[in-house]
Amino acid sequence: MIGAMAVLAAAGCSSGLGGKGGKPAQLVISPATGARQVTPDAGVSVKAAHGKLTRVVVTGPGGSQAEGRLAPDRGSWQTRWSLRPASTYTVSAQATGDDGKQVTGKATFTTLTPQHTLDSGMSPLSGETVGVGMPVQLLLSRTVGTKQGKAAVERSLDVRMSQPVEGGWSWVSDQELQFRPRDYWPTGEKVKVTAHLAGVRAGDGLWGGKDRTVDFTVGPRHITKVDARTHEATVTSGGKVVRTIPVSLGKPGDDSYSGIMIAQEKAADIVMDSATTGHPGEYRIPTKWNVRMTYSGTFFHAAPWSTGAQGNSNVSHGCVNASPENAHWFFSFTQRGDVIEVSGTSRKLQFGNGPTPWAKSWQEWQTGSALGPAASSQPAQTAQPAPNASPTG
């Protein structure tokens, strides 16, 4: 519970102009000094009656300082984000009264210790250069099952860009949400995403434990179009064709997925094992130059055994097969997040089979926001001085 507000009138006065005949300032700090078990999402507020605030500093664990907003009339100040649970905070404030004299105030309090803590992970990796189709993934350690909890998590998320574009968050599951731009990222975009999760009330007894930040850069616009009918992969960079690769896709009954995917990860060596798809003994083959396209195990990879079919027929177990030379080139060329669009098969990509934000239209994507479509369609702010399944073969 938050204790009573601390009201400080002319406390600890320093030299002032005096003689103006106005009233002295009164500082009101909430939570009050000595308060315990403070709910982190209540934040800190400081008000100056009969005066204007000149300084507010909220210091938390490790000397960190909480970000806040000063009202235009400088009569009040409020923390922008929730506070960290199980932590001690000190508030120092100053105001100048209508009488011209300075008033200072201070309060120290402790936030509650949660029953359950919500931790997180994020992708891409900080400092990574990614393709234009890469979403931001926020992975949560516990289920957030209510609309109120999801809305609180969304409100804690801050996306800043060097070239602001329209984008939005959407929940993929009760433990994952993703951010994508409306269209592909611009090349050269620098993005900084901060999840201010510390102190977020995500459920009954469930509070965010720590903030998390990731910053990344968007690399060249690599888009590869794979056509199962022509048996070709057309690779472009910046809109120009840089290579046309003969390929073989999934044979009837093992059809490849059609849809817009991204390069999710790269591995030079993998053993493709049919046992991972419920068909033990059908094949177990080491493969080279593997670029993952789905969680369920679709890869673009080298297949020296099918070079005779590449360019003329589909004989794989669902992957995109290429010659060792072409697969090695594609592996070296590809960034995580590059767009790979497959067409001409009877099997449609399912949303959630990996980071698959482009499997939904922009309108469909917006419906996944707990804050509503309007909240998920705002341009991000200007940047400040930002489970793998087994393969199928």
Features:
single chain, five-stranded antiparallel beta sheet, 393 residues, mainly beta, six-stranded mixed beta sheet, 3 helices
What does this protein structure show overall?
- This protein has a six-stranded mixed β-sheet, with no helix packed on it.
- The longest helix is centred in the C-terminal third of the chain and has 10 residues, at 324-333.
- The protein starts with 5 loop residues before the first strand and ends in an 11-residue tail after the last strand.
- It has helices at 147-155, 324-333, 362-366, and strands spanning 6-9, 26-30, 45-49, 51-59, 68-70, 76-79, 88-97, 102-110, 116-118, 120-123, 129-130, 136-140, 157-161, 167-173, 176-181, 190-195, 201-203, 206-208, 212-218, 222-227, 232-237, 240-246, 257-262, 265-273, 284-292, 299-302, 320-322, 339-343, 347-348, 381-382.
- The protein has 393 residues and is mainly beta.
- It is elongated and about 95 Å long.
Per-chain topology:
Blueprint: E1 6-9, E2 26-30, E3 45-49, E4 51-59, E5 68-70, E6 76-79, E7 88-97, E8 102-110, E9 116-118, E10 120-123, E11 129-130, E12 136-140, H1 147-155, E13 157-161, E14 167-173, E15 176-181, E16 190-195, E17 201-203, E18 206-208, E19 212-218, E20 222-227, E21 232-237, E22 240-246, E23 257-262, E24 265-273, E25 284-292, E26 299-302, E27 320-322, H2 324-333, E28 339-343, E29 347-348, H3 362-366, E30 381-382
Parallel strand pairs: 9-18, 11-19, 13-30, 20-28, 23-29, 26-27
Antiparallel strand pairs: 1-2, 2-3, 3-6, 4-7, 5-6, 7-8, 10-12, 12-15, 13-16, 14-15, 16-19, 17-18, 20-21, 21-22, 23-28, 24-25, 25-26
